[in-house]
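QUALITY CONTROL LOG
STEP: pairwise intake check
CHECKER ROLE: data steward
CRITERIA: each record must contain a sequence immediately followed by its structure tokens, with no blank fields

ENTRY 1 OF 2
RESULT FIELD BELOW
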Amino acid sequence: MPLVSIITPSWNVEGLIEETIRSVQSQSFADWELLIADDCSTDKTPEIIADIGARDPRVKLIRQAKNGGPALARQAAIDRAQGRYLAFLDSDDLWLPEKLERQLAFAKEKKAALSYTAFRRINETNTVTGRLIEVPASLTYGQLLKNTAIATLTAMVDREIAGPIAMKNEGYDDFCLWLSILKRGHTAYGLNEDLARYRVRGSSVSSRPVRSAKWVWQIYRNVEHLSLVRSAWCFAHWGARAWLKRREF
């Protein structure tokens, strides 16, 4: 059984998926499986994944029967995962070579149900843009409601501590998952080290700030069932942090 199962949804990323896979294969920690759930790509994405998987059995292609979005693709990968730890990596993002090794040691030290790290942004030509996105040392459920600190490509879940893991088919399904874990009384811990590269693309699901804000509001009201007043209070804090996070300096 691999110790870490890496959860990756993919859709029409034939020009990027190989580099993402290579960033996993280059990890200093090697006891992993990479589960890539392809969401009915119309380009050569699944063929590229299958070809790499034929040479490295740790890379596993899951073909979705119909296009359902990243939440359902992530859930398909989670359903097949064998590892104690779940790490999340989108199909256009990258990890630095010591990401898994450093974060695993940190998560074990903290006995963390959920951990996350700092990261930098890159553009479509792999140029680093902006500053290091630093993270707070810890987050509770109430704090995460007002925060944008846990980027998907930096998150790691210890299933033995966190309990059952299930994605909600919502915009920002990842945010819903982190909240569901912390709502059980756990605290998330942040490793403030530069270990990942988040690729900013105009076509990415979360690239539109107005839509992102709408998704967060819907999570407050329809998933977490917060009151109107508490939703507005959390949203004001979330919006301010989101604006600061998007600034490049």
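ENTRY 2 OF 2
RESULT FIELD BELOW
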Amino acid sequence: MTTSVRDDLLAAGLFVFDRVGFEAATVAAIRARARASNGSFFHVFGSKKELAGALFLEVLRHYHAAVLAALDPMPSAGQGIDRLIRAHLDWVVSSRREARYLFEISRSEWGEDVRDAQRAQNARLAEGIERWRAPLVAGGELLPMTPVMFVSQLIGPAQIFCRAFLSGRDRTDPRSEADTLVVCANRALRPPDRIHKL
């Protein structure tokens, strides 16, 4: 089975899940969208749930790649905070369907099958951020805190705007709040005497 059939099924799954949600989505609708036979579908994926898990990992990989790209080349503390927040906002807006799937549609009850792979991907993201962050903490440019606290202070506020945007509750482009989010993140993550230094 070619990679393109798998890719076509994943793209079709994303489209169908985005339109009707996971529960209402059917293998028949996904196959029709992908123009794939029943045999082709079940040769690649054992079930709708398996496709949904594979799609989750694929979208998560794309999101992590966009975030880590913001740290290349390695930025200063202020530049990194700015780039990471803007990378998150840009990805959500430019990949709206994928972002909605990742943050709104995916469900933990069918995600158990991909939990180990998800943990491995999350660990790679954390390692990439930590390679940038740890020397800056050691040099006093970033406040010491756990990696989880750091990411929650960095991305958490932006995620509130993004969720409202993705759900349709607020049609405002979340990137319009980027400058304020960056200022707030700097206050939360950097010593006061270092904030005005890039």
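INTAKE CHECK: passed for both entries
DESCRIPTIVE NOTE, ENTRY 2: DSSP finds ten helices and no strands in the chain.
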